[in-house]
Each structure stands twice: as C-alpha cells, then as structure tokens.
Design brief:
TIM Barrel; alpha/beta; 8-stranded parallel beta sheet
C-alpha cells in the first residue's frame, strides 16, 4: 500500500481528538473526512483500507475523475471546495455532502440540478459555508446573511441543510483559531434557537484541527496530516 504512514498518522489524530475532548469535557462524535486533493486515486484506496470512508475533494473535475477509477470503493464523497454554479449539475448522485453552499445563488443552482436529476426524490445534504473571519479572499456568506441563506435552503425541496462550515485564517495562533471556531458554534446555536436543525460543524484542517475539536467540531477535513505533503 502507498501512504504507508497513513495508519499511524490516523491513530495519532484519533488520539489527539480523544485527548482534547477529554480535556474539554466534550462527547460529540467527530468524523474525519480524508482530503485527497492533489493526490492520486491511490490515496482514496489507502483511506478506505484504514477505514476512512468519507473522502473530500475540493475540485469537481478531480473528484469526477477519481470517482470513475474508484467506483467500486464504498466511500462517501464530500465536496469541500468552492462550487461554481455551472458545475452544480455534476453534483447530484456523486456527493453525499456538499460543505460549501455559500449563497442563495449556489443553493438555487444545486436545487435545480437535484430536480433535474432525481425529481427531488432525494434531497442533497449540504452545509452552509460562513466566512466568519471576513477574509476577502475566501468564500462563504457573512454571519449577517447566514439566516437569509439558511431560510432559503429550508424552503427549497432539493437541499437539506445539515450544519455549517468555516475556515480559519492561516497564520494565526491556536487561541485565535478557537475564537473563529467558537463563533461558528455560536452561530449554529443561534440558528437552532429559531428552529433550524444544524447538527454538523465542519471546521478544522491539518493545521488547526486541534482548536476545532476543542470548540465542538463534528467533521474534520484532513489531508496533509494524514497523507503527507502533496506530490510526495
């Protein structure tokens, strides 16, 4: 098997998650999405071999190519990167969860795609991406417009909002990371007080997953910490 360190890397991450949850008094289940962006399909095969059955891809085209080769693998595919409206038609039937619904426009495009594909028989699970830190170079709705996007998703037949997603800025310390992730958790709590059911918090990548776990993440999007640097 390529990625010979994967099993040990995964065990280390799992131990860290358990340690942090014990320290913080948390009991929420945390699932790991193995991010195979930039790696060959062998990374998907290696992930499945060690029991990582949720696989994340940033780009639609890369995911489609890998899905074609790895069609016999029983993994759930997550779309975690920015989605363009003209690529929405490729999503239904390929992904079990889309992490990056960041606007009404994207939600509308996905809803139409689901309708054309399945006639709304199987709503697509999505997360609403929030740009908590207000970074101009990153996607995500603002905290102020989150309620509007969530309300729109709740009203359309093709999508089911399962929670929220965010990314922390690069280069900040762990305390600052925790502030970003705590803000997403509070946004989720405020939505739930108004009747929304938002069980999932997708937050935390290789460089900041510890802070995310401490603030209640349920989904970690991990690549480098599992597979090593891309291209190796």
């Amino acid at each position: 098997m390529e990625f010979t360190a994967l099993s040990d890397n995964l065990r280390h991450v799992q131990d860290e998650v358990a340690r942090i949850q014990a320290r913080e008094g948390l009991h929420t289940g945390v699932r790991i999405v193995a991010v195979t962006k930039g790696h060959s399909v062998k990374a998907v095969e290696a992930a499945a071999e060690v029991g990582l059955l949720e696989v994340g891809e940033n780009r639609i085209q890369e995911a489609v190519e890998k899905q074609g080769v790895a069609s016999e693998l029983e993994v759930d595919w997550h779309l975690i990167g920015h989605l363009q409206t003209n690529k929405a038609k490729l999503v239904p039937g390929r992904f079990s969860l889309v992490h990056s619904v960041d606007s009404i426009r994207i939600a509308e495009a996905l809803d139409k795609a689901v309708g054309r594909t399945s006639g709304y028989e199987a709503p697509l699970d999505v997360l609403i991406q929030v740009n908590v830190a207000g970074e101009t170079q990153k996607s995500g709705c603002s905290p102020e417009t989150l309620g509007e996007v969530a309300s729109y998703v709740a009203e359309i037949p093709g999508l089911t909002a399962r929670g929220l997603m965010t990314m922390a800025p690069f280069g900040i310390n762990e305390s600052e990371q925790r502030e970003v992730f705590a803000s997403l958790r509070l946004l989720r709590e405020n939505l739930e007080k108004t009747g929304f059911d938002m069980p999932e918090l997708s937050m935390g990548m290789s460089s900041d997953y510890r802070a995310a776990v401490a603030e209640g993440a349920t989904l970690l999007r991990l690549g480098t910490v599992l597979f090593g640097e891309r291209g190796k």
